[in-house]
Amino acid sequence: MVGVILMVAITVLLAATAATFFLGLGSENLGQNTPQAAFTFDYEAGSPDSLIIEHRSGDSIRAGSLYITVSGASTANGQHGFASLSGAPAAGSEITAGSRVTFSKAADLSEASVTLNWQSPDSDQSIQLASWEAP
After folding, report:
1. How many Cα atoms sit within 13 Å of 4 on the Cβ side?
2. Whole-number Å distance between alpha carbons of 129 and 110
3. Three-state secondary structure along 25-58?
4. 40 falls in which pLDDT band (50, 70, 90)?
5. Which NCBIfam families does the protein's record reference (predicted)?
6. Over the stretch 84-123, which tens digit does the pLDDT of each residue have?
7. Which of 13, 60, 67 is nearest to 38 (CA)?
8. Cβ(61)–Cβ(55) under 8 Å?
9. Residues paired with 62 in a beta bridge
10. Residue 64: its pLDDT value, please?
11. In degrees, to the nearest 5, what angle opens at C-alpha 21 toward C-alphas 17 and 27?
12. Cα–Cα distance measured from residue 53 to residue 31, given in angstroms and rounded to the nearest whole number
């Protein structure tokens, strides 16, 4: 009877170890410290439209680890894209609570979606921290 219990325990331990390894939950991810932070988006329609992204609270984040993707924005000449950024911190600096970045250009954001992503400095993995959809 004791032998059967030991065999079941060993089997469960081996299955848990294999699942951890194959699901990528092992040592590869131990060095990652995904930031926990809250961001807000403040959209101002006008000519030009602008979108202010503010770090409201949480962990400081290195500026080079964040990137923003914008889809659905169109410029006055009908082309898609959006590429004017003011208030951006210098690469390597820390983004802390209260930091703000403003997108503004002759673009229509009325159908845009914006995501703020964090790229791990240790791997190719990235995580979406916040998103905004046009009203």
Report:
1. 1
2. 22
3. CCHHHCCCCCCCEEEEEEEECCCCEEEEEEEEEE
4. very high
5. arch_flag_Nterm
6. 455 667 767 888 899 888 877 656 777 888 888 888 877 7
7. 60
8. yes
9. 94
10. 82
11. 105
12. 28
Tokens of 44: 């101002």
Q: For residues 135 and 130, what is the distance between their CA atoms, to the nearest angstrom?
A: 16
Tokens of 64: 């080079």
Query: Tell me, what amino acid is at 37?
Result: A
Radius of gyration of the chain measured on its C-alpha atoms: 22
pLDDT at position 11 over 80:
yes
Q: 58-79: per-residue pLDDT in tens?
A: 999 888 888 888 887 766 544 4
Round to whole Å and give the CA distance between 38 and 95. 12
73 neighbors 81 (Cβ within 8 angstroms):
yes
Q: How many CB atoms neighbour CB 49 within 10 A?
A: 20
